[in-house]
Design a protein that fits this description.
Blueprint (H helix, E strand, L loop, with lengths): L3 E7 L6 H14 L3 E6 L13 H11 L6 E3 L12 H11 L4 E7 H4 L8 H4 L4 E5 L11 H8 E2 L2 H4 L7 E3 L9 H9 L10 H10 L5
Parallel strand pairs: 1-2, 1-4, 2-3, 4-5, 5-7, 6-7
Amino acid sequence: MTKHIGILGGTFDPVHNGHISCADYVQRQCGLDIVRLMPCHLPPHRATPGVSAEQRAAMVQLAIAGYPKLALERLELDKQSPSYTFDSLQLLHQREPDSRFYFIIGMDSLCYFRQWKNWPLILKLAHLLVCERPGYQATDGDAPFLLQQYGVTDIGALQQSAVGGILLLNNPLSAICATDIRCQLQHNRAASSALDPAVLNYIQLQQLYQA
């Protein structure tokens, strides 16, 4: 039986409530069997001192503990080179050839999607599920061209083919930003409203994101 698997990539540095609410919304709205959060390799120029790939993965595991249809995807964790979506989707297909993959991005990413490495081949490996982002519209950048070529209007139309469709979602907007959270933590300001309590406790115990 074909499994329908959502993939939400990101640095998750740290994972926050915006990530989890997005993944949960997509899973429920699109009826996916599971949504996996896939932390990417963090390039050196973006690394936050003292926060390892394993620590980011541990935070994801804590954040999804109460969501049985969310999971951690470890595929990119041990890579020592930049993580490209095309490469990861190829590996996922090799590992799970009978599954269909739905790659979750934001409208901000769709607006420059044609700058991604091998973007046409990404659409030969997966569908795109596009979440709304504050400040970005479907009329911006690459979005009009891509939606004209690949856009569908609902999940039923998307699932009529195995790959190659783009569906816009009407998710609740979130203004939570990991950069702001890191800044708050570095200056000992409250960030608890944006983090799962277990994640915040882990950050404090591990003494992460300290100035």
